[in-house]
Design a protein that fits this description.
eight-stranded mixed beta sheet; 8 helices; alpha/beta
């Protein structure tokens, strides 16, 4: 039976009540996203609350709002928030991004999402897992449109996606007056094609800063220096 919790250096994430467990994608995004200067942060599709907790650790003053369409995920996120050192700055709400954008007057300096992206794959018989993994309820167009609406003038949207889906999203970004200012291609091992892309989007044009991150050295569970540098504030054994 999988462990019902994941222990980080400064907090614990329980994930037994929500469909999507703590994984490398969420951890990478939570550590990579530019949140240090943000005063308000929105985590879209928070699940267990992992990324919201990571941003709370990285930014000591920001208020973080975490939303999810799935009730049990929000219950879990609230429990994880309340157990953390930053409970007074973390808010979890059960709502879709569309509903939130329609009802919310505020804007956010950083919007972060590890979005559903398995558009072509078979749906899981587990409805909660389907909501978490598929874009039926959150298309790339809806994600870009609503996030652009909620973004402060100098803010940024931070995403992690598979390469194919990420390229499709980047092809649509200018339709919503968004520009890619930063992208990092994530490779599992050296000399291997990237499997994920980390993306930062802004409302104003800036030259795109491009980099590559390799997770392991080629030996299983032996992490690269770049990965260690990025995650050493979070993982217990780094």
């Amino acid at each position: 039976m999988p462990n019902p919790w994941f222990q980080f250096k400064q907090f614990t994430v329980w994930h037994d009540k929500c469909a999507m467990k703590v994984g490398t994608d969420g951890v990478l995004l939570g550590a990579w996203a530019g949140v240090e200067q943000a005063q308000s942060i929105l985590d879209v599709g928070t699940g267990s609350g992992l990324i919201a907790l990571m941003t709370a650790q990285r930014n000591p003053t920001a208020t973080i709002t975490a939303i999810d369409i799935e009730k049990s995920a929000v219950v879990q996120a609230k429990e994880n928030f309340n157990r953390s050192p930053w409970a007074n700055r973390l808010i979890a709400r059960q709502t879709s991004l569309e509903e939130f954008a329609l009802s919310e007057n505020a804007t956010f300096d950083s919007i972060i999402s590890n979005p559903p992206y398995f558009q072509q794959s078979l749906h899981s018989p587990d409805e909660k897992r389907t909501l978490a993994r598929h874009s039926t309820h959150l298309t790339p167009e809806a994600l870009l449109s609503h996030c652009a609406q909620l973004l402060s003038p100098n803010g940024a949207i931070h995403l992690i996606m598979p390469i194919t889906e990420g390229n499709k999203l980047l092809a649509k970004m200018t339709d919503y007056h968004l520009f890619c200012v930063r992208q990092t291609f994530v490779c599992p091992i050296p000399n291997h094609d990237p499997k994920r892309i980390l993306i930062s989007l802004k409302l104003d044009f800036e030259p795109t800063r491009t980099s590559t991150l390799t997770i392991e050295t080629g030996i299983r569970h032996q992490y690269s220096e770049d990965f260690i540098r990025l995650l050493q504030s979070f993982y217990l054994k780094l």
